[in-house]
Amino acid sequence: MDNQFSLKNYSRSKLAMPNNEKKLLLHSCCAPCAGEIMEAVAASDIQTTVYFYNPNIHPREEYEIRKDENKRFCEKLGFNFIDADYDKDNWFERIKGLENEPERGKRCTECFDMRFERSALFAHENDFRVYATTLGISRWKNMDQINKSGKRAAKRYSDIHYWDFNWRKKGGSSRMIEISKREEFYQQEYCGCVYSLRDTNKWRKKNNKDRIIRGIKFYN
């Protein structure tokens, strides 16, 4: 990629957080989605703590790979990293009855709500006034669905603001891939939950493609 928004050409402007806050709690789903956002906030001197709370990721081995990749990049940039609970039993209980919902449907909304409610609670209890998420940078996701969940969780607390910055704009989604390749991040091939794994493999079988083999594919 050789354009004005590529990593080598793009000049990052200083980002201003809501209410000119200087400290951010960043809920992260994975290193590939987090990379561009983490470099953007670092360039803006925003004191950022990455909060890894993703009990949807299945199985546990996949969860650990994604967590470790995110932690590795936090260590490189000097960010604090919070390893939150892998309370998958609560996640399955909350998703009960929505197992056959399509991607971007009611199951995903419930999943976002659960993760953001915990993120907003952590922010409230640990002197953060603003939180955001990496989930919206992926073009596979519905940004409006994510932002509604984020704002809904923030409304539980009078002192918490959800930052709905559009990380995709000005080449953000493309730089996300550039950074992933540069850092050789693990490249997951499904969203995370057991149902997305199921549905992705169904699609692959229908289209004469091999089933997903977890834990072996990395950006390069």
**Which stretches are low in confidence, meaning pLDDT under 50 for 5 or more residues running?**
none
Oligomer: single chain
Please tell me what the overall shape is: globular
Fraction of helical residues = 40-55%
* Helix vs. strand class: alpha/beta
Counting H and I runs of at least 4 residues, what is the number of helices? 7
Which whole number gives the mean pLDDT? 96
Largest sheet, spatial ordering of strands = 3-2-1-4-5
Total DSSP E strands: 5
Gap between N and C termini, in Å? 15 Å
Give a written overview of the molecule:
With 220 residues, the chain is α/β, with parallel strands linked by helices. It has one domain: 3-Layer(aba) Sandwich (Rossmann fold). It contains 7 helices and 5 strands; from the N terminus they run βαβαβααβαβαα. Helix 1 (31-43) packs parallel to helix 2, helix 1 crosses helix 6 (172-183) and helix 4 (106-125) packs parallel to helix 5 (143-154). The chain is globular and about 50 Å long. 36% of the residues are buried.
